[in-house]
Design brief:
Shape: globular
Largest sheet: 6 strands, mixed
Protein name: Thiamine biosynthesis protein ThiS
InterPro entries: Beta-grasp_dom_sf, Mopterin_synth/thiamin_S_b, Thi_S, ThiS/MoaD-like
CATH architecture: Roll
Pfam family, one: ThiS
CATH superfamily: Beta-grasp domain
Number of strands: 8
Radius of gyration: 14 Å
Number of helices: 1
């Protein structure tokens, strides 16, 4: 069975969503383009956590920056499976949603 992993990352508190959500609009990548309260920063989501987007950000780089073991997880980008071999060349766009799963074993 696969379940989303929780993040043990350093997320800037200014990017946390609260009940007064930032504006949401459709992005060309099929995800949601979110702007934060600091003046329109563009974000990506990693396991439902908003993070700053930057040009050239790959799925592999985002995983590495947030201590996700690339060889021990499965990923989905905007709800579609993203194979391990494609992560380094898959550039994220504002509003993309990357979900990380790890296998749970045992009974």
């Amino acid at each position: 069975m696969l379940t989303p992993m929780s993040l043990n990352s350093r997320i800037d508190a200014s990017h946390e969503e609260t009940p007064g959500r930032p504006p949401v609009s459709s992005s060309p990548s099929g995800g949601l383009a979110r702007s934060d309260r600091s003046g329109g920063a563009r974000l990506v989501m990693l396991n439902e956590q908003p993070l700053p987007w930057r040009e050239g950000l790959s799925a592999a780089a985002l995983l590495a920056e947030h201590d996700q073991p690339e060889d021990r997880v499965a990923t989905a980008l905007n709800g579609e499976f993203l194979p391990r071999h494609a992560r380094a060349r898959t550039l994220l766009q504002p509003g993309d949603e990357l979900t990380v799963f790890r296998a749970i074993v045992g009974g």
